[in-house]
């Protein structure tokens, strides 16, 4: 078990800055998830931590020791790859035993450790099989067992569930969370799937364009996204955005006008807004409620273009001003495509972002 | 010509007819150039055909003669020695060159081309050049030995050395093929496997021994079969460089077959040798294919 510290880490490929000045601390035993869209640098960052690629700048410390110059095999880490990276010519036993053989451990020792790891991942009966005979989920378990036997300070996982089907992914998600609890080790997990990040992480690191956009607990990111990118990335379906204009600022309230939503006042606690500013409002699909709202609600009308009934939820897409909003209603309320619908949003759940380039959040949601 | 996609009243025959028509020219060439001569050779092996006197059916006489023919047994030994001598070093050198050239470094493509060039040269032209290289008094090979302080050798003139000289030339010529085939095999090994091995603490030698070589096993079998079959059929280089000598030390099966047929006009006996060689090669091919299929499964 070990904590991980990244200070000013950067990675450059030719003229391309894959990572810029990433500084992070991941505590001992923490389950940290790097999340972001394709090409955001999350896998690159994991490879730098593993020692598979050298850093272009900055420092990587594990358990307080500088690992920046150490080779991959000399770092106290184990990695689970997206495509499992099992040795196809070796049996399950030999795959799991390989790192121990490289450490020149005794045969008895190897046998004991492999049995223990195989038991944890429930593969004790498949030890003599080749990986080709196993299902995707079982192969992933072999890869995990191979990581477990190394007793690493940090487990690194690079999109380990992305090759599995949806049902198996859900099952493995729960298993990985249990495994983390059982082993109590530090885990760094990379995914592009915000659902995986939300369900598994103690702390999420949102990356975009080689930079860290925000670090925080899943619900912190959900309720208080630091900027437009995080707001749009975390949450499913994604947050609705609309351009707004600040008409007036009075004390702790700003009066806004939004095309399709009219004019309304919203409290805010930033000092960065003044009359005439352009801002962006954000409304989570699940914050929208059917029916006209009471005081303290923003109410408006929309005409659904599509109504998707999922049983537990109903998802409605409807034009609002120049945008198409997505609303997520509980259950199966009576609404139909083409018939106008009253909708309300508690003003307290309205997000507000500045529009001077950065799209920073300028309103805390309590 | 129209293509039908197998409607209920137009069974597979119509579809297959098109396929057979397309295949016919190739099948005809194959039949005339390969199957017919092969069948004729097997037929001839049961006769004493020589084109100089009337031909008689002799049954298994030619085959029985082979069993007791000391010269043929020497040719079998020479061929086996040559095959072993060429196959193993060619594969080892080809693998090492492929592993080295599979990394990124400057002039990588130039090195690949240089190593592959011998494969592209004409065998006869290369053999003539090698005769010069092995020339005992002014040849570069002895020049190299002398410059290293070693005594010069009668490469192609000594019964003890001539076969080794031929093997060296064959390895020089063939290891480019082995390299290319191994390079293709190496590129099939996913980079992630090597990365996993590095993370598991394996060094370069351990990766080569535990990951690369075993993962190339089907390529190795394929290559081994190709090289064995090719070496069994060696003729051109021997014809140009040693003529089977000195003292029959480089006389291989195919060379002896050629001499028996065209030198001594014993076509029936030569056909029996050819038939034996054919079945030995067939056996190797079948065993090789079976092992490879088993490996893939």
From TrEMBL, chain A:
One of its GO terms (molecular function) is ATP hydrolysis activity. Gene3D superfamilies: 2.40.50.100, Nucleic acid-binding proteins, P-loop containing nucleotide triphosphate hydrolases. It is a peripheral membrane protein. GO terms for cellular component: ATP-binding cassette (ABC) transporter complex, substrate-binding subunit-containing; maltose transport complex. It comes from the Bacteria. The lineage of its organism: Bacteria, Pseudomonadati, Pseudomonadota, Alphaproteobacteria, Hyphomicrobiales. InterPro entries: AAA+_ATPase, ABC_transporter-like_ATP-bd, ABC_transporter-like_CS, ABC_transpr_MalK-like, ABC_transpr_MalK/UgpC-like, Mo/tungstate-bd_C_term_dom, NA-bd_OB-fold, OB_MalK-like. Signal peptide: none annotated. It is found in: Cell inner membrane. Keywords: ATP-binding, Cell inner membrane, Cell membrane, Membrane, Nucleotide-binding, Transport. Transmembrane segments: none annotated. Residues 4-234 form the ABC transporter domain. Belongs to the ABC transporter superfamily. Pfam families: ABC_tran, OB_MalK. PANTHER family: MALTODEXTRIN IMPORT ATP-BINDING PROTEIN MSMX, MALTOSE_MALTODEXTRIN IMPORT ATP-BINDING PROTEIN MALK. This is Sugar ABC transporter ATP-binding protein. It comes from Devosia geojensis.
Automatic annotation (TrEMBL), chain B:
Keywords: Cell membrane, Membrane, Transmembrane, Transmembrane helix, Transport. The chain crosses the membrane at residues 20-46, 81-101, 113-134, 154-172, 219-241, 267-287. It is a multi-pass membrane protein. Residues 76-288 form the ABC transmembrane type-1 domain. Pfam families: BPD_transp_1. GO terms for biological process: transmembrane transport. PROSITE patterns: ABC_TM1 (PS50928). InterPro entries: ABC_transporter_permease, MetI-like, MetI-like_sf. This is ABC transmembrane type-1 domain-containing protein. GO terms for cellular component: plasma membrane. Its main location: membrane. It is found in: Cell membrane. Belongs to the binding-protein-dependent transport system permease family.
């Amino acid at each position: 078990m070990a904590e991980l510290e990244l200070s000013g880490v950067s990675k450059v490929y030719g003229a391309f800055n894959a990572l810029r000045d990433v500084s992070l601390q991941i505590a001992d035993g923490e389950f940290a998830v790097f999340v972001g869209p394709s090409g955001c640098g999350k896998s690159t960052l994991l490879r730098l931590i593993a020692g598979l690629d050298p850093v272009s700048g900055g420092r990587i410390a594990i358990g307080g020791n500088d690992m920046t110059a150490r080779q991959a095999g000399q770092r106290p880490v184990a990695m689970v790859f997206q495509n499992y990276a099992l040795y196809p010519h070796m049996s399950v036993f030999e795959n799991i035993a390989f790192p121990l053989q490289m450490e020149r451990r005794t045969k008895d020792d190897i046998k004991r450790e492999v049995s223990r790891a195989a038991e944890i991942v429930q593969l004790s009966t498949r030890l003599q099989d080749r990986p080709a005979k196993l299902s995707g989920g079982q192969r992933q378990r072999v890869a995990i067992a191979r990581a477990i036997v190394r007793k690493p300070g940090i487990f690194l996982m690079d999109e380990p569930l992305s090759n599995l089907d949806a049902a198996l992914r859900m099952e493995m998600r729960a298993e990985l969370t249990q495994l983390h609890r059982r082993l109590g080790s530090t885990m760094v997990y990379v995914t592009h799937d915000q659902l995986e990040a939300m369900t598994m992480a103690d702390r999420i690191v949102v990356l975009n364009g080689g930079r860290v956009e925000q670090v925080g607990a899943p619900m912190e990111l959900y309720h208080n996204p630091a900027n437009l990118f995080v707001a749009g990335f975390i949450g499913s379906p994604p947050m609705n955005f609309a351009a707004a204009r600040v008409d007036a600022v009075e004390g702790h309230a700003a009066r806004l006008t939004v095309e399709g939503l009219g004019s309304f006042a919203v409290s805010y606690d930033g000092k960065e807004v003044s009359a005439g500013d352009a801002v962006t409002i954000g409304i989570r699909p699940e914050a929208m409620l059917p029916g006209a709202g009471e005081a303290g609600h923003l109410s408006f009308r929309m005409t659904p273009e599509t109504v998707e009934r999922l049983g537990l939820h109903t998802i409605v897409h409807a034009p609002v001003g120049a945008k198409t909003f997505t609303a997520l209603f509980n259950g199966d309320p009576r609404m139909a495509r083409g018939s106008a619908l009253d909708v309300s949003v508690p003003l307290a759940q309205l997000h507000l972002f500045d529009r001077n380039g950065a799209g920073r959040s300028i309103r805390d949601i309590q | 010509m129209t293509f039908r996609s197998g409607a209920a009243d137009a069974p597979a025959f119509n579809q297959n007819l098109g396929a057979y028509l397309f295949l016919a020219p190739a099948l005809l060439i194959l039949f005339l150039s390969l199957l017919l001569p092969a069948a004729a050779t097997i037929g001839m092996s049961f006769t004493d055909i020589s084109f100089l006197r009337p031909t008689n059916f002799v049954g298994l006489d030619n085959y029985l003669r082979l069993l007791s023919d000391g010269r043929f047994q020497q040719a079998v030994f020479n061929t086996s020695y040559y095959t072993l001598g060429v196959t193993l070093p060619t594969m080892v050198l080809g693998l090492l060159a492929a592993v080295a050239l599979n990394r990124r470094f400057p002039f990588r493509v130039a090195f690949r081309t240089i190593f592959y060039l011998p494969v592209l040269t004409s065998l006869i032209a290369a053999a003539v050049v090698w005769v010069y290289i092995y020339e005992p008094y002014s040849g570069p090979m002895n020049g190299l030995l002398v410059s290293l302080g070693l005594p010069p050798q009668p490469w192609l003139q000594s019964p003890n050395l001539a076969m080794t000289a031929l093997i060296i030339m064959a390895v020089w010529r063939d290891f480019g093929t082995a390299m290319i085939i191994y390079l293709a095999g190496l590129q099939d090994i996913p980079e992630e496997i090597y990365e996993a091995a590095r993370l598991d603490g394996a060094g370069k030698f351990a990766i080569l021994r535990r990951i690369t070589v075993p993962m190339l096993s089907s390529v190795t079998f394929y290559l081994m079969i190709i090289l064995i079959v090719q070496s069994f059929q060696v003729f051109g280089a021997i014809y140009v460089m040693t003529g089977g000598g000195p003292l029959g030390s480089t006389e291989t099966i195919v060379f002896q077959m050629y001499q028996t047929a065209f030198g001594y006009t014993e076509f029936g006996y030569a056909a029996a040798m050819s038939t034996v060689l054919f079945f030995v090669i067939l056996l190797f091919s079948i065993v090789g294919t079976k092992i490879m299929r088993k490996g893939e499964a």
